[in-house]
Fold these 4 entries.
Entry 1:
Amino acid sequence: MSAPARRPIRRLERGTVHRIAAGEVVERPASVVKELIENAFDAGASHVAVRIEEGGLRRIEVADDGCGIPPEELGLALERHATSKIGPSDPIERIASLGFRGEALASIATVSRLRLTSRTPDREEASGIATAGGEQPLRFEEGRSVGTTVEVADLFYNTPARRKFLHAPAVEQLEVLRAVEHLYVARPSVALRLTADGREIAGFPASEDLREATAHVLGAEMLDQSFVVEAELPGLGRIRGVLGRPNLATGSPRRFYLSVNGRTIESRAIAQAIRAAYLQYIPRTRFPIGALHLAVPLDRVDVNVHPTKREVRFARETELVEAVRIAVRRALLDCPGLARVPEIAATVRRFSPEESLEEGFSTRSESPLGPWPARTAPLGSRSVGPGAAGQRRLFERPDAPTLEARPGLPAISLLGVLDALYWVGTTPTGFVLIDQHAASERLLFEVLVADGHLARQVLVDPLTISLTPAQRAAWEVHRSTVADAGFDVEPFGGDRVRVLSVPAYRGHRARAESVRELLEELSTGTRPTQPDGMVERVAATIACHAAIRAGDAIPPDELARVLDALYERASAVYSCPHGRPILFDLPRSRIDRWFLRAGP
């Protein structure tokens, strides 16, 4: 094969250069909204209104009541690397404003049809400039109150290769809402309003109370189910925040909001430090929710490491991250009424040949956990001699519900239940412990994935609940998914909806309130411990809430039916759809080692 012919090195055309540079700043409509709102913050705005059409693909408008731009500077505002945020000799190592590169407006103008209108306090009317693709700007005058409006139409109209990688308008709308939420939590003193296709979908009032601000975004539970973090970080800065108690932890990391010096950012190291602070209080598959504001000396943080300023670099980062973890941990431990790791005070129940299965597993005669009481009736054959290997069954009883052995799975006879949650059973080689909720959850997950739905139970008294803006937006986008899952939901004014029916399976139904968690799942994306597909995500969430719950008193033949159904799908026995184990095997040989005995 001949060598390819050499191609000469050439300068790229100016328009190509600008479109490539724009792609680093403008990724999607949410990127445009973020940059324009940050400009409004820098302009001293107290109110910002965002309007989008078709998820921002057709039109974006951001209007503020800030200081405005003088008419003689409008042309410069659209030029690359022209900015009012830093002076000619100001060090870029000490950036106090949100914008400073002078790239945002120029990049947006390069890939859209942009119209900018602005009025300063000393003028009677507003001046404007319009451009398509960054070329041939036109000037105009019109009426407007003090402040600035930027209109962006037909985003990526001149770069179709970029536009085709965007998602559907409904998905882009959710991303815009997330961007607005992050910006509001970082600067709650500025009121933000988002309108989509002529309908207001989120309104965040100005607030000096961070707890109140997080409640507007994360839900009213933050008002009384959260704790305050406030501490000096000697030599490193200061931390202030509001975090949810462990019971509010969610399956997605996207409900934690971090800002540095008023700038919303992402930091994996700090996010991991927050999770470490919750160690022993939330499962490894759950994530804290809330907001943290870091105030760091300007020369200790580099905001110039990412074109969109989404990531920053800290000086002495290891020390800062550890100081944040310690501050959060201390605040968590000092939180009044915190549910600490409890002492085990379990109860156990067993059934006997003299009792019916239903009676044996009622909650009427539970006794404290301890040795099995002496019995007058024999428990059954219990040969432990070496010659009985392969024929022995521990605590074998004819009345115990038994699962037949399957390839790779042992036969199980159920003995009793611990705290109406953990069942004890025997196998030919030892014991098993079974989580009744995890087993039921996995079965429902398999049914949902296979059949697409559960039964629907109509509520005699429909329940009215309030949704956060993100949950409301997710419902608007995924109404058919929510309905297919078994929830009939109708609007009930403002942020409230009414739940008319819920999914159910063999007498166990989901709580009406759990529709919030389904919407949260749909709005924030997949959990790291479950499949990425929409079907699996919805099925896992619905199964969790329609399954047999911890504390439900169920007869042993009901659990045997659940386990038997799982035995039909051998791979389903190992864990629930969220990764928690269903069954632990405890061989007799291990028990012998605990008691320093030789094997049988």
Note: Residues 338-396, 526-532 have pLDDT under 50 and may be disordered.
Entry 2:
Amino acid sequence: MFADEALVYDSRLASQALLEFEVTSSLKKAGVVQFTMPPGHPAYNGFVSLRTLLEVYRDERLIFRGRVLYPSDDFFNRRTITGEGERGFLRDGTMRPYVYQDSPDVIFADVIQLYNSQVDEFKRFEVGEVTVTDANDYIRLESERAEQVADTIDKLVDRCGGYIVFTTNAAGKRVINWLAELNYSSSQAIEFGENLLDYARQDASDELATRIIPYGAKIETEIERTDETTGEIIVETLSEYVTIASENGGLDYIQDDEAVALRGVISRPVYWDDVTEPSNLLAKAEQFLASSKLVITTLELTAVDLSALDKDIDSFMEGDRIRVASKPHRVDEDFLLFERTYNLLNPANDTVVLGKDKTTLTGSDAAGDKAAQNELNKVKQEIIADYQLNTAVAVAEVETLLRSLIEQTSTAIRSEVSETYMTGDELTEYIGTQLTQLSDSFEMTFTTLQQQVDENDAYARDQLQKVEKYIRFVDGDIILGETGNALTLKIENDRIAFLEGGAEVAYITDRQLYITDAHFLHSLRLGNFAFMPRQNGNLSLVKVG
């Protein structure tokens, strides 16, 4: 690791040892570096917040470039430094109020040029490859207020898609690229039982809509009228948005009937400030609705990068497409790596997080239920057809198919089979017997479980009553002692009190003991001195330690 080109850490140098060292690189946001130094580290005081440039290399490959944020020290003066990736530099430039009406690549290049004119040399970027396009090769982007360059770049990405990727050119200059797709496929796979650590799936859609009301550009029209009193001609300007009413049978909205039937009317207004023709606005609205009606199912995986253990294995990098195979999760397809974490002190703990968005009208659960139901209907029709041809063959196929489906979706198969009836006494009786046995076994297991729960609940209640007999919580205080006993101990927020018959006889507070009456049977010791009774009945103060 280098700080302003000065070496501050090398894993081969014991004098530069760190206590923690981790880098997280991300495809969708600025990366993060965090490391902890002992008080005697040579670079302990060598960082300037928001100014020191950090570069971290692993096996000669740059895995982080950014700047130091603010340090923090713990009780033992161990200093933790946190840094943000170079995408965070874009917050240092300001975009004054602007209006763009051009292709995405032209707007992107101009924004970066304005940013470079405001910042220090080490924060500047050359514009590299831009593969993001617009269907019309023309977008309108504006802001009536000044904003950070980072916000403008985020608007462009939200509007047109793609990914911001940083590289280094042959001259050693940092380059900012805006890529529509990332097509590199890693030869290393992630497989269940080998390097897959975690799997999660979530259905969501922040902008879900079944009906949208599109608005285009604001059109200003001048009209003339005569003042009735003075006869003077007055020119007035009327402003109104372009709508689709003239191209849509008088309606200013469109909806997806299938989505409305499923979820009801969920209406959203959508604006396209650069569209002036109602026909073009209708086309954009239809395209937007086609995606906004869908539920996004996001799959996120966490896995170990095996290249940290074997240098011959292709290393994972953000933006890679990686094959994931997990039979228990019914997954075997490519995912995009959008975040990875390097544990530079223990490479075996490196992890990667991958994701893939799937869009459906119903979402993953409903889609799965529908698929299972279709499969069951198919099974039923096959059973009926086979029975007409050969009863014996049908019995064998029924047993095989039903056993398979019971393992996959036990609840669904039980409800379906209960309605499956066919002619032929032998076949009907055989299937009914098998399913009755399966049903009984499930019911029996549940009944046994319920009995165990009831028994454990009764035992737990009995034990709780015993505890409550000796320990009670009253108005935030703890009372120790058997219920009805004359002597009890009361623990309050700032004191411990001893009570007899409900009256306080002694208490401890502020590291001091207070006693109403004290009776010492043998001696009273104060530090190294004690009052000791003599055989003649006198009391002497003697040194005892």
Note: The CA atoms of residues 5 and 303 lie 33 Å apart.
Entry 3:
Amino acid sequence: MSDLNKIRNFCIIAHIDHGKSTLADRMLEITNTVEKRKMKEQLLDGMDIERERGITIKLQPVTMDYNGYKLNLIDTPGHVDFSYEVSRSLAAVETAVLLVDCTQGIQAQTLANLYLALEQDLIIIPVVNKIDLPAADIAKTKREIIKLLGCQEEEIICSSGKTGAGVKEILDTVIAHGRAPRANLNAAGADYPRALIFDSKYDEYKGVVAYVRVFDGQLKKGDKLKLLATKAESEILDIGIFRPDYSSTGILNAGDIGYVITGFKQVAECRVGDTLTANIGVNNSTKVQQLAGYKDVKPMVFAGIFPKEGNDFKELREAMEKLKLNDAALIYEPERSDALGFGFRCGFLGLLHLEVFQERLRREYNLDLIVTIPSVAYRVFKNDGTEIIIRTPQRLPDPTFIDHIEEPWVALDIVSPKTYLGNIIKLAQEKRGLYKNTEYLSTEGDDSRVLLHYEIPMSAILTDFYDKIKSVSAGYASINYEYLDYRRADVVKMDIMVAEDIIESLATIVYRDQAFREGKEVVQILKETLPKQMFVVKLQAAIGGKVIAAERLSAMRKDVTAKLYGGDVSRKKKLLEKQKKGKKKMMAAGKGSVDIPSDTFVKILKR
């Protein structure tokens, strides 16, 4: 058994782009975990998309040896859409390094991640990062941290991930002030090993690999493993630690963080948050209590994902099953669209989550996709007292059967310099936000920074809210949001009709007072992109039986008088009159026969 006092499990939490991955690189160098010839920037960011965007998407553990101690680090994401990854990391460690960029100060996600860490009762080590930059304001950032944590100034470490300054001091502080892991949390099951699965990955050659934190006992290669929630059983084919690649040790003791190659082939058998135990008899299975897992995450954004080629549906399904394994926040169900064929209705935590997911499908599985416009899940209360959840407009019942509809709201935090306060308040009001209160993070003249609290409909921040916040604040503002509750909404289903035929796949749920503008936009796009027919095509947006916006696509013109070479003008009029009658007949006979190209759907869905 390893000495628990010689182990420190910690993670780095911060806002996006505050230097977590760069700081982790320096730690790997200082502890000689990775050879210098193998060292590269953002070493723990394994995906190409992480390197290109400069963001961490997946948590990544690594074990380092330093001054006789075993340090287990988990590098976490910083974007609001991946806060679920952060919460899973925090459950596996005892200490958190709170990193703040001294050129930007405390941001919205810094606060959110800090609150998550405090909920888990972790030891917090405050660090001011990027002190080597010319724009660094160390004194101001320290004051913000002291106001937030109530700590002493000498407790705050100054560091630079780029130059390596202060990194040894961080590691020394983690050892000196970080909490050592505690074992035997559950006396009833202390005779049996227990490990929490905080992440998992599907490997083409190894099958399902579980990332675990061992709380009690010992896990060894060859042990018969069992998962307490799914009841799945298998054998530990290999076991080890991260350096940061798989490094087989054959054993993991209490307090260790490492991997277990489970031998499972089905992704559903190895759930994140489950408790893994080993060598447990049938009669003893009730003695072992499950570790506290994770609360079920609620996806807030829903979008349809369809293959461009219909015969890629099977490949898309298999790819999504594999990605679901190491993305516990993803949910999906099969869906069929008249326009786009078979696909899936997927639930995400936010737009970046959706964007990264579709990018991974394209890169890792070589799939061409069509992604529909994101929407939220509405709660519909019917007149007979029943309640249903709908994620697509097509499932909305007839208005005569609906008592009322509710939509999800979120608590929105906006951190911004005071200078841009007016612009941000105006934008939040336009998006139906309800102002709650303002907190001042620092009060130093024009450079003072404020924290605005709002309650706002989830649908209002879905598409372009993040971009608009950055635009009105010259890029300085940051946002964080979390689900609040459902509230009554005055929304209606808007149908789109082409040649008086309802196109189901173009239906949307809109606010009643914005329906005219939305409808006008859609029919205008249709007018610009639909190919002309031999007859005039009516393009209409309607709510119930009432048309709220309309355009006409003029008929393709054929010059029927071209063959005339002389004679009276009445001959020309006669031919034009005949053509007019023919067009009327075609319009009546050809109603609903307009073929809408797929690129028109994409333009409307992504408008």
Note: The chain has five domains: 4-177, 188-284, 301-371, 401-489, 493-605.
Entry 4:
Amino acid sequence: MHATEFDDTARLRELRRYAVLDTPLEEAFDRITRLAARLLRVPVSLVTLVDEDRQWFKSAYGWDKRETPRELSFCAHTIGFDEVMVVPDATSDERFKANLLVTGDPRIRSYAGAPLKSANGFSLGTLCAIDIKPRTFSADEQEILRDLAMLVRDELELRLAVRARAQQAAVISNLWAGVVVTDPLQHDNPIVLANPGFTTMTGYEFEEVVGQNCRFLQGPQTDDAAVDQVRQAMKQRRTATAVMQNYRKDGTPFWNELTISPVFNEAGELISFIGLQRDITERKKLETLRDDLVHMIVHDLRSPLSVVAGYLDLLRHDIDPAATPTHARYVSRALQSSELLQEMITSLLDIKRLEAGEMPIFLQEEELGSLVQNAVQTCGGEARDKSLEFVGGQQVKVRCDAELTSRVLSNLISNALKFTPSNGRVQVSIAARGDEVTVEVSDNGNGIPSEFHERIFEKFGQVEARKVRHSTGLGLAFCKLAVQAQGGSIGVRSEVGRGSTFFFSLPAQSGDE
């Protein structure tokens, strides 16, 4: 048997994680020390936990003390070994012959101790057998002691798990949000836990919903697409967030922001799903009010802005740039700004129409390469000292709305040019993959941090990178809605310092249509 080196500071930290020191006696541990004394025929058996300056007894059969100084402890030596430590005669052992527990009460003569190893491999203490006469402990007796020590360890691990569960339950119970836990190992993935926040939100008591699938919250206005999004995420065992209209016990609707997350055991097996639910009804009302207000404002601005742009255009033609260059420059800039504002108003109105499903969508067969080529040529004037290149010239047909798709292309290319440095490069390409065709617009600008990849597609979303904040305005929000309205998808791959690639996919046109 060889001693092993260990970090006592880390070991003590592990011991305290179990929160067992100075706890009352428990029959589960006393049963084990009684059994050890009987099987090994010794008068004393202890479950010992070695603290910083003492050995403390969780169970003490045959001894009325609850602790002794660590420097007198046989067990403090045992925790330095991986196997059972045996002392046949303490009076002839150089380590212990002068020990006060040997020279005085209880006059220990022989000792056998098995280390109590935690799940993380730390020796917390020992299960030991003590006799008041010299003796040896056979290999079978040492094996018995090892097995009993494993039972002690299991009891300690059980208490640790129970305490952790109690802490988790306390946290869940005190969350204002609704929390449900479901069991995917049972038929129909039923609810097995629901916290008070769920009851407050829905009106259902736990006793009313236990054993049921969460679909009882759905109703006539629940979005099937959102439900399918959650269902697919659970099928793929991944986290997902969806917003859907659900219904309380009394039938009143509410907007539910639901996040579901899978839980796996140490073997990587799925054991449950946790659903975190937030009532965002008030937030949705405010968003609707804000959108209605914006729609009203931009709609009323459209007419006077058109008049301003018209007069500015007349002024531009009347002014002689050679005679009054400064005035000509001012008028040109004012006209550019008014045109930009008109574009923003158009985008806002179109976004509103797309969100409401009121935008006419004309899907027909189009040659995507031609649409891309036209967009590149249209945006070419913005390139100036930057390189703009279309590298995917293959003839690929898609089913799309040509006008919407052209606007998406122009937005993405203009954005790439805007955030690409001087002498930078913007590349546009097309690739056919299975039943869809993907367009990619890549640049070598500063890139976008990953935490902003979703936010940039929101209305007036902002990206903060390299201490500079850029508003993404409405262009990307329009692109997302326009692509989705055509049955496609959109996204971004980007890394700070390595540029960005925005991409969108549209359904390919099958050859027999």
Note: The chain is about 40% helix and 25% strand.
